[in-house]
């Protein structure tokens, strides 16, 4: 332990990497670069450790949706509706986080 020079981030520190972080008490949260590590409501300042990397969502590919729909024998209009619904969910999440993502 004495040779370990790396310190885990604490509440209030800025997030450097998009990832899922786990507190020392088992609480997991997905954070994006630029956000700050939250404080625990009951324990106050806690230490976080990276549990898993977050991978960015792929770009909206209209042709990919059409190809996937054709392979699954789903009408293209249904694929377009699913894409529109996905955009609505992303917009609601954006508003829920007040633009801080």
TrEMBL record:
Name of this protein: Uncharacterized protein
Q: Where is this region: Disordered?
A: 77-101
Q: What species is this protein from?
A: Paenibacillus antri
